[in-house]
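Task: complex structure prediction.
Instruction: return structure tokens for all chains below.
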Amino acid sequence: MAKVTIDGITIEVPDGTTILNAARMIGGDIVPPTMCYHSKLKTSGGYCRTCLVKVSKGSEKDPRPMPKPVASCRTTVMDGMEVQNLLSPEVLEARAGVVEFLLANHPLDCPVCDQAGECDLQNLAYENGKMGTRYEFQKREFEKIDIGDKIQLHMTRCILCYRCVKTADQVTDGRVHGVLNRGDVSEISTYIQNAIDNDFSGNMIDVCPVGALTDKTFRFKSRVWYTKPVDAHRDCPKCSGKVRLWYKGEEVLRVTGRKDQYGEVQDWICNDCRFEKKKTSDWVIEGPAHIQRDSVISANHYESLKALKATIDRQRKSLPHGHKTTLGHGALDPNNTH
Amino acid sequence: MAGKKLLLENDHIEGIRSLRVYRQHGGYQSLEKALKQMTPEQIVEEVKTSGLRGRGGAGFPTGMKWSFLAKPEGVARYLVCNADESEPGTFKDRYLMQRIPHLLIEGMIASSFALGARTSYIYIRGEYFYVARILEQAIAEAYEAGLLGKNILNSGFDHDCYVQVGAGAYICGEETALLESLEGKRGNPRIKPPFPAVAGLYGCPTVVNNVETIAAVVPIIRDGGAAYASIGVGKSTGTKLISASGHLNKPGVYEIELGVPVEEFIYSDEYCGGIRNGKKLKAVVAGGSSVPILPADLILKTANGEPRLMSYESLADGGFATGTMLGSGGFIAMDEDTSIVKNLWNFSRFYHHESCGQCSPCREGTGWMEKILHKILDGNGTLADVDLLWDIQSKIEGKTICPLGDAAAWPVASAIRHFRKEFEEYVKNGKNIRDVKHYYRLNNLVEV
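Output:
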């Protein structure tokens, strides 16, 4: 066991735990945001650099601070380690920098993007970014391509988190896609436009933190915040059968895996469950799913207006007089003072 | 008096590339000594005593690196030679491999013996395909002479050495990206830890060393670590190959004893012979394109007014505020007519092109910096762009997986730090700067 202190909160965790997972055990606001880490995927993480934290004390044995900010998702804790996340202005600045980098070549086409409303990049930008961008050059663009008949890849939106590559590596049979080229023109692609055709390929859609991989059976059907998530299961011979149905009225518009509070899929589901079973009668309904993150989905359906108002009032009090708060820019996060 | 040469002592000899001539001049005696008179531990000890530091750029003590190598029972160990010399301004390894390939092979075998590696690889960059052929020829000669293969020189030590040609990516010079590439994968740096000394090539303990480092093991074994340590100054022991390029009278590869004053290196006839056409020195990039650029006054003398020496410590004196690094020894001198902004754009274009794209700050930041520099060069820049450049580099440095991010950020930071005036000049008058040289002479912009 190792004792680690994150933003002044001490917790004892098993050896080999990463700083990120230790922070998740503590929970709350001190958990660094992630874009590329995924708890169910081995060797994921380390790429996006949003979870950077400062290690102000290495360990009990070697108390020297680490010279550079480290990726909390890939750094294991040492006994006596002290970590600063929200308490370090340096870390917050670096994170704001990463957000700016991620958005530099992102098209920001949220108004026409299916992911809007449940997009990790949107949340990240609202919570950790700054207003406006300083990037003024042509953004990189790619053609949309279909990888398989159910999935569309819109590389322009991709932030190269490598999650789908790892999913294809670890969840599906036979690796048929990866990264081509390098630097800011690298792209996710299949081997010479091969179709991705296997029973679990749909999980790539769920792990995509942005709108780069979208479900063609759901594209442009509805904004996600008009749909209501309901947990359901069925006896599936291929997968766990534990899914989330997204209803609009009586109609199931799409089926996804169940994501935890960090937006990471809990159980992989097969393509039959995802694409073929879109009738309520196919499923045993468990009840409405609560989306805990500060997304528009929860604001629309679950948080009462009263609670929302209380949050805004509380935030308004903590701001200098005359400062306007607007919904959408992290308004639901009491810790965000931008 | 000429300094002592250990690596390039015999490079002028006709036919030294062949095994026969190499042996006539004392070649493979170190290997014989290592295999017959020394134990692996003794060799590691000699290397530690020698104070040899990694010649690839970071300057990490080689003996220490070797002693970190994990030695679990029944697991293969590997020695990998990093011959992916891609740092702009650095060409010493090519020279060494091209001239005296057997020096590297001898070093590889002796080092492998010290580390207990049954197999070693020389990972060479794709552009050096002709050098790879020279090495392969040398390896074939060594096999024929019983210096490689089974039971080398009747010592009972078996060793195989292979040359692997990369596809020409700067990033594959980063040791973990090199190992990925060597394994046949995409050359992306790994996230450390684990370090290669624990889990490197094919998951086995691996030492990755630069060509020059491995070659330096040969004279260390021959003369002993203490003799090697007696050359040089302070913790910078031995000799170092410097690739001198730029506006020098005599550019080329020089073997220097560490501790030679920079002024002597630039101006003496023994080395670079001064600046071309009698011009004044404006700036120097002392260790390959990624180390901070220094203006002439700071490269010749430290901030304290002491003469700067060609050594790890002296060049780093003053930190990044007034110092730089010895790096890989790519010494680029620029005369008074050089445009620092244009030069920086060239460097930034390189790092943009070579970023692997794995982690966001480097992937997005390098391209962004290049575009801003291009804008400034075109005369469309603003003063805010210069500040933005500074801000971007500060958000890349130290926040990436591998040191390529730092390498892209440092030149930008140092150019702005020391030559901000020039950036401002481009912002104000950029549209009129058609002929940079002419412009500088007209406006007397250079302060040397």
